[in-house]
C-alpha cells in the first residue's frame, strides 16, 4: 500500500489546520492553499496579527519530498517572487507577485498552446512571532505560455462602464487585464490567430459576452450550435422603429378563410396591428386585429416621443380567399377641437409658426361575408398642432366588423333580444335623423363639461359618469339652473327606446317604448331675496332606470328585452366655496348621471308548499345538507354532462349496489338454507 504524494498530503494538513485554527483564536491564512496561474495572488491573514512577521520561501522538491517549513530565515523576496504585506482592520493582506523583469514564459502570440506549463514552483508563505511558526500558506504555481505573462500588464486604471446601462460589462469572461483569456472570444486582447484556436469552444451566454441577447423568437437569430432541432411556432421580425409584425413560420391559413378570433393577415404574411389595451391596462402599439372582434380603446402618448406610423395606409389585406387582396379606403378629416385631445400642455420651446399633424382618432370598418373580408374603410382624424408643443395626447382607435349587406354602420344590439354590452337602441321622433342612442359622459383633461365626450349606454351594465361645470361667485341662479338642465338633457335626446335589439328604426311600431320623464325642475326666476353665491334647487344628477326581463330563449340562449325607461332629476343647493377670502374666480359645480338596470322576473316565483313552510330542515336554501338533491345528477336540473351519460352512470351505481346486497350475509344464509 503506497503513500500519498507529498504535496497533496501537505495541502490536506494545511486545510485541516486552517479550518480548526479560527475556532482556537489563532492565526490562519484565508485561503490556506492557492493554485496560481497568473502573476499575482492575494490572501488574508486573520487572528492576532500583532508583532507578526510574514516571510516567503521557495520550496525545493527533492526526490518527491518537500522540506519541513522553517521560519528562521525571513525574507520578502525570493528569486523571481516578491511579497507585500498590507495591514487592514484585524487582518493582514498578503500579496505574492512575480517580478516584471522576468520573461520566462514569453512567446510569440501565434505559437500553439503548450500542454505542459513553462513554470512549476511551490511557494510557502509563513507567519511567525519570535521565530515561531504560527500559520502557513501554500502556493502551487503553474503558469503556461501565451497566458497573462505573455504581455506586460498595463498600469492604467480599468474603466468600469455605467452599471445601469451595462450591468454585466461588455465581456464578463475577460478576467485578466492585459492578457488573452482562453475561450473568451469577446476578449479584445486576443489576436485573431489566437482566437481561432478556441473559437469552437467559446463561452456562451452572459459570461461569454452576450449580455443583451436577442430574443430566440427573432427571425434573424440563428439556431444555436447544439440546440434543439425544433423551431418556435412564432417569431418576430422588426421593421423600422415602430412597426412590428408577428410572422407565422411558415404556414398561413388565411387563404382558407378566417374564423372568429383569427388574426387578420396582410399580403406580406404579417399580422395587421392596431393599438389596443391589454388586460393590465397598458396600451400595446402592435396588437394584432382579430377577425369579427370589435373594440374601442383610448391610448395616451407623449407628444415629445410621438411618431406617426404607416399602419394600414400602405398595407394590403388578405381577404380570406385564395389570392384575394383588399386595399383599404382611407379618408382624412381635421379635428374640430384639438385641445380636447391634448392635456397637460407645457410652454412651447419656440414661438415659430411651424406646425405638424398628429393622428388623434382612427376608425376602421371591416365588411365581412361568411369567412372573408370584402371591404375595409378607414377614417383618420388629424389635428394640427405646433411643432414644439408638449403634453399628453389621447388617441382613440375603433374597429367594427359589419356584414357586407348592411346598409349603414349601425348594427343590431341583438337578434332578437339584447346582448350584454351592446348599446341601447333609441329613437328620436322629433328629428329628421331618427337614429340616436342614450349617452353618458366620458371626461377628458380637467374633466370639464365643455371638453367631455359622449359614450353610449351599454345594455346590462350599470354606470356612473359626470363632469364639472365652471360657475362664478356672481353666477345667475336661473342661468345656472338652465345650463345644468341643458347638460343633463343632452344625454337623453331620444323619445323612445327599442324593446328588442333588432327593432326597426323606420317602423316606430316595431317594439318602441316611450321614455318616461319625470317633471324637470322649474326654470322660474330667482326669488328677490336671493343671496349672491347661493342657489337652491339646482339639478345635479340624472337618474336613468331601465327595466329589463327575460323574454324567452332562442336555441337555448336566453333573450332579454327592455320593458321601460324612466329618467328623473335630483337637485342640490349650491353655495360658492370660499377660502379665507372670496375671490372672483370660477368654482366647479359637479353634475353626474347614473344608469341602473333593474331585472324583473318574467314569471312569479312558485309559492312555497305547506311542507316547505313547516319542515324547514328539508329546505336546501336554509341548510347545508340537502336531502331532496341526493339524486341531483340524475335530475333535469343538472347540466354538467349530457343526460344520457348521467343515466348510464346512475344505472352503473345501482348495479354495484344490487351486487353488494346479494353478496351480503343475509342473502348468503338464505341461499345455503
Automatic annotation (TrEMBL):
Residue span(s) of domain Tectonic-1-3 N-terminal: 146-230
Residues of the signal peptide: 1-25
Coiled coil: none
Gene Ontology CC annotation, any one: MKS complex
InterPro entries xref list: TCTN1-3, TCTN1-3_dom, TCTN1-3_N
Presence of the UniProt keyword Glycoprotein in the record: yes
Tectonic-1-3 domain boundaries: 255-403, 414-600
BP GO terms, sorted: cilium assembly; protein localization to ciliary transition zone; smoothened signaling pathway
This protein's UniProt keywords: Cilium biogenesis/degradation, Glycoprotein, Signal
Keyword Cell inner membrane attributed: no
Assembly: Part of the tectonic-like complex (also named B9 complex).
Family designation: Belongs to the tectonic family.
Protein name: Tectonic-2 isoform X2
Native source organism of the sequence: Ursus maritimus
